[in-house]
Amino acid sequence: MSDNSIGKHIEFAARALKMPTIRRCWAELAERARTENWTHEQYLSAILDRQVSEREANGTALRISGARFPAIKTLEDFTFDHVPGLRRDVIAHLATSTWIAKSDNVILLGPPGVGKTHLAIALGIKAAHNAYPVLFDTATGWATRLTEAHATGRLAHELKRLRRYRLLIIDEIGYLPFDSDTANLFFQLIASRYEQGSVLITSNMPFGRWGEVFADDVVAAALIDRLVHHAEVITIDGDSYRTKTRRQLVNTDQ
């Protein structure tokens, strides 16, 4: 078989096997293999590694896009010096996403502006890199989603559909109160995730005030009970990063 025929056969096989990376790079790697005197096994390993790496990168990009993050935030960009009380070793452990494999939860509590949303997004992106499907929304966004599903008789179907996401991120609980009907919908969401899938929540309210958010102390207590049973609860103290930055700018201008 001629070199030309072999090349066409490789490209046909790569297309049939849905391996576009191999189709693109086999010739380049073959030339390198000849130049560097690779064994057949080394060439095969290199070409398969290239295919796997690109497929994983594409999968990560799709998971990040599908998560609907409002922005891309990373742990590398987080200003830990602004919140010195935040334990970096705990965040580093959460970045491994091993808690998601166990269907555990993470709750970030603290005043506005201390980086809760940044951390939530960054941990969500780490989860996507670790091959876990993620879905992000604000608490009001989740309330709208659940209310619409309930109104159209699709709540059970929606809760079942959401189980395909190994991590749900609920941002900004506490900024707006919910009525009792919405509170019950939130309870059903959390109950459906209990020991089945992970939830990451950020809130500016301590647990003692969640009754104000969910219109009912009993519902709030039941919701918290399921959330914290298998959870890392992190309280972040400090001044608002945004307020501090504005203050510094004003002082600089003066």
Ordered list of secondary-structure elements with their pairings:
Elements: H1 3-16, H2 20-36, H3 40-67, H4 88-95, H5 98-101, E1 105-109, H6 116-129, E2 134-138, H7 139-151, H8 155-162, E3 167-173, H9 180-193, E4 198-203, H10 210-213, H11 217-228, E5 231-235, H12 241-253
Parallel strand pairs: 1-4, 1-5, 2-3, 3-4
CATH third-level topology of the largest domain: Rossmann fold
Number of strands: 5
Could you describe the largest sheet, including whether it forms a barrel? 5 strands, parallel
Order of helices and strands: HHHHHEHEHHEHEHHEH
Cα(first) to Cα(last) distance is 80 Å
Low-confidence runs (pLDDT<50, min 5 residues)?
none
The secondary structure category is: alpha/beta
The H-level CATH homologous superfamily of the largest domain, spelled out, is P-loop containing nucleotide triphosphate hydrolases
Walk across the major sheet and give the strand order: 2-3-4-1-5
CATH class of the largest domain: Alpha Beta
Helix % is 55-70%
CATH architecture of the largest domain: 3-Layer(aba) Sandwich
Number of helices: 12
Question: How many individual domains?
Answer: 2
**Strand proportion:** 5-15%
Shape: elongated
- Based on the structure, what is the oligomeric state of the protein chains? single chain
Average pLDDT value? 91
Features:
2 domains, 254 residues, single chain, 11% strand, 59% helix, ATP binding, IstB, 5-stranded parallel beta sheet, Rossmann fold, nucleotide-binding
